[in-house]
Amino acid sequence: MICEKGEQTAFIKQEAIRLGFSLAGISRVRKLDEEEKRLRDWLASGVHSSMSYMENHFNMRLDPSLLVPGAKSIVSLAFNYFTDKRQNDPGAPVVSKYAFGRDYHKVLKKKLNALLEVCKNNFGDLNGRVFVDSAPVLERAWAKNAGLGWIGKNTLLIAPGKGSYFFLAELVLDVELDYDPVFEADHCGTCSRCIDACPTGAIDPEGYRLDAGKCISYLTIEHKETIPGKFSSKMANRVFGCDICMDVCPWNRFAKQHREPDFEPKDTFLNMDKTAWKQLSEDDFHKIFSGTPVMRAKYPGLKRNTDFLQD
Ligand code: SF4
Ligand code: SF4
User: Fold this and answer.
1) Which of 124, 139, 163, 278 is found 20 to 30 A from 23 (Cα to Cα)?
2) What is the distance in A from the centroid of ligand 2 to the CA of 249?
3) Domain count for the chain
């Protein structure tokens, strides 16, 4: 059994890397007082648009001990999904890189459960819960707290020397561990590339704040109604998600090809040209996108998004 706090901390990080995570850091569970005002103001301004679920569990979002009774430590993990692969037709509507392969919720949940299991087997008395985009957890704030990186002007977690093409995930445990220092620096400096490049002006001119209702990612996936005309002409050929504010970020020049076989795209998807997209049948939608995040848009949603493509 591994009983000493420092050894347990090292073991968790080592096992996380063995399971394929790129980064692991640990924070003490507490109420994120510094996030309270920001979250309250963001919700009050209504920019979360139709994502009303963001209004639920306000206190739980700020304090994971309300979510997991007895929680003492939160392990923040980052999993690389960057790929050099491209859709073969440069004129084809663009799908966000995170959606190229198998649904990350499933892939990462399996790895997180394996990590929890190996901790239980080696630490003796231990309980915990795993999260990947699945509960009211302020993932980016915890990742910053755990020293993984800073939250950039595009509102994404950026890891120095690695970029931002990461899925974030958490393991909340009821044991004390050694904690990493908060990542205090902000390496955005005077850069404003993400703000300048955003086709719909979704990022605040000063950065660090997103109007979700204007974001192509929201409009193509979460928004269930007709896309308002003022945005439909600015979709930049995106049909599922949008990577523009990451693609232009200079820190992503450090991004490296992921090594996760489950995130490999199918050739049938990569080979879809513009005509194939326009003629996509419901049967083919299921054949090509089954098991990927694209299913979240559902067939009518994806068809709605392709309707805006220019000839
Ligand atoms: S994802 Fe696209 S639309 Fe959303 S903020 Fe980034 S660049 Fe703008
Ligand atoms: S593009 Fe520039 S301002 Fe935007 S997140 Fe990256 S470094 Fe920061």
Assistant:
1) 124
2) 5
3) 2
Nearest-CA residue for atom 4 of ligand 1: 215
Same domain, yes or no: 150 and 111: yes
pLDDT, one tens digit per residue, over 177-202 is 999 999 999 999 999 999 999 999 99
Main-chain dihedrals φ then ψ at residue 25, nearest 5 degrees: -145, 160
Asked if residues 96 and 52 have their Cβ atoms less than 8 Å apart, the reply is no
The band of 40, judged by pLDDT with boundaries at 50, 70 and 90, is confident
Supply the DSSP symbol for 18: H
Domain that holds residue 281: 193-253+265-306
Residue nearest to atom 4 of ligand 2 (CA): 194
Does residue 143 share a domain with residue 19? Answer: yes
Q: Check whether residue 79 and residue 201 sit in a common domain.
A: no
Q: How far apart are the first and last CA of the chain?
A: 64
Confirm whether 138 is domain-assigned.
yes
pLDDT tens-digit readout, 208-225: 999 999 999 999 999 989
Kindly state if the Cβ of 249 falls inside 6 Å of ligand 2.
yes
The CATH code of the domain that includes 44 is: 3.40.109
User: Within a domain: residue 185?
Assistant: no
Q: Whose CA is nearest to atom 6 of ligand 2?
A: 249
Give the integer Cα–Cα distance in Å for 300 and 304. Answer: 6
pTM (predicted TM-score): 0.95
The H-or-E segment that residue 167 falls in is strand 166-173
Distance CA 38, CA 287 (A): 42
136 with 13, same domain: the answer is yes
Q: Identify which ligand lies nearest to the alpha carbon of 245.
A: 1
